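It is worth pausing here to work through a concrete case rather than discussing structure prediction in the abstract. The textbook approach is simple: state the sequence, then state the predicted structure, then interpret. We follow exactly that order.
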Amino acid sequence: MRRFLWWVEGFNDLLGRGVSWLMLGVVGISFTVAILRYAFSLGWIWLQESYVWLHAIVFMVAMGYTLLYDSHVRVDIFYRSASLRYKAWVDLLGTLFFLFPFLGVVWWACYPYVAISWERLEASREAGGIPALYLLKSVLLVFVIVLLIQGIAVLIRSLLVLKGAREYGKRFDENKIV
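Step two, the predicted structure:
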């Protein structure tokens, strides 16, 4: 379990840090689109779509990273000052009863949508748009997978804390995975 935890958290950390570099592309392409449009009256649909796609990819693929670092939205009126065991229970039950069912619904709703897109090799609706829309839609399933494996890591970490391994309660020490 500890090895799996180490692998998953390391994978999501690396994936999140790697995909975050795409934001430079988003900014650069957005800047280029604006300059081309307003200074030179030029524009290409594929270029405009590309920064929207990159933005979507960053948010969807980095969700495991967000959960890893507890950066998701949480109403932590009670959680912040709670004991380690209480936090472990909240994480365990929240993952089991909220995260996993949510991921099941997203997979159930998105899989046929993505499969049809692949069957048709769906392209952008816009003339001159990016031809491989099915690849972007596939990121929905990647979102589910990275959140699922990070959710399993949260379960393992919570169980280890509940079994008395307090060192797993402090998730991070100076932004490094413990």
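Step three, interpretation. Residues 6 and 83 are 23 Å apart (CA to CA). Confidence is low (pLDDT under 50) at residues 172-178.
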